[in-house]
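Input.
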Amino acid sequence: MKKHILGLLLLFCGSLSAQQSLQSNGELQTAMVNADYSVSISIFAPFAQQIILNGELTANQPQPMVRDTNGVWSYTTAPLSSDLYLYWLDIDGVRALDPGNSYVIRDISFLYNYVIVEDNSGLYGTRQVSHGTVESTWYHSDKTQSDRRLTVYLPAGYEQNRGKYPVLYLLHGSGGDEQAWVELGRAVQILDNLIAQGKAEPMIVVMPNGNMSEDAAPGYGIDGLVRPDIPAEHRMDGFFEECFPEIVRFVDTRYRTIRKADSRAVAGLSMGGYHSYWLSLNYPDMFGAVGLFSTVYHHGDMAQAVYQDELGKLTKLQTNKPLYYRIYIGNADFLYMQNVEQRQLLDSLQFPYTYTESAGGHQWTNWRHYLADFVTHLFK
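Output.
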């Protein structure tokens, strides 16, 4: 009996020691947003020779972290503006995540830690407002002879009433998929918060997979756990535009939508802007508004029929019913000159559009801001 009690005491003491050890390690806090909106990153790595902080926290300028006598490496950024910031660590030449930050996100084939810097009025955090519903669903495509996955945002109150809603079709860029706008773009939080503030109309948002060689995001399709990458086929060859009406028919059948052009909009970033632009030219009666975020205009297989007669299609649109175009681009974006040339073409036709030029380049920081602005102008 005494031996049994002694064993329990030893087990308890060992457990307590382990708990104290875990608690001690757990006291090290990282990805801390400070009162001045700077961010502090810390990692316990006593045997590391060098740790470098990379990513958006340091404006994509690698910064060495400083080690103290206890083996804790630290770095505090300058005060940051409200946004979501991706970062990662380089530990002795090996790319690594911050082990103390559980918040991880994938962009193409890379994983990043992230931190959100904003006050209670920001759009990217979850607030005390009514929340919409996000669902992943599948539709059948006769043209691809397969089922395809898309993500749908339903505004708060959709399940409780029988009203009909306008629809925004929101398209991702190269390397993205049907989850990109939800995960990297914070589209759900942006819509929830702007609708609650009365700045955006309640709307359904449909986010399809624009990679026609894939049925779903990596890990969710029939190919299983494939390595995420930018697909080599069927990205900008006209096939997405050809198949797109199938998505609209599915959405109009499954959800309570307002089935007219003035209650539909399409927008996208980079490749998604490319698709949005050509969809608007090829289906002039499908949409009432088009958002072009950091758009590539002439990159795909321009020999395809859907990409032919651009001038004629624009002229027809201008004569019959010009759509509401909003063009967004960063002044450091590698596609900036393409956007300058495209605006010159539109100006030569006196084609109406609204133009917004921001700082920065081809990055999610800009695309989140563009979405937050674009949706406030829709369906008024």
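The longest helix spans residues 2-26.
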